[in-house]
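Lab manual, section 2.4: Encoding a predicted structure.

Procedure: take the sequence of the chain (94 residues), apply the prediction step described in section 2.3, and record the output as structure tokens. A sample record is shown.
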Amino acid sequence: MTFAFIIMGDFDPRQDRAAIHGGSARMVGVADLEQACEAARELCAAGVECIELCGAFGEEGARRVIEATGGKVPVGYVTHLPQQDALYASVFGH
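Recorded output:
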């Protein structure tokens, strides 16, 4: 199986890419949701079978990426336990 992890932050998706395990695991950094949707379409077209998103996307961002891929691959997003909300807010400024 080939899968990808998309992370959002101060990234340029043309440069901020990596692959391991012969390309079966990929990572793409994007700056915003629009870039994420474009990256997801490209990954899907390249044969990626599953996409995971960092927690910055949240449920709505995950829905947008699912829509961008036409629902052709499973898309998940990282979350954390509620008891760590304050810690996440202190690290990420939310």
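Check your result against the sample. The chain has three helices and five strands.
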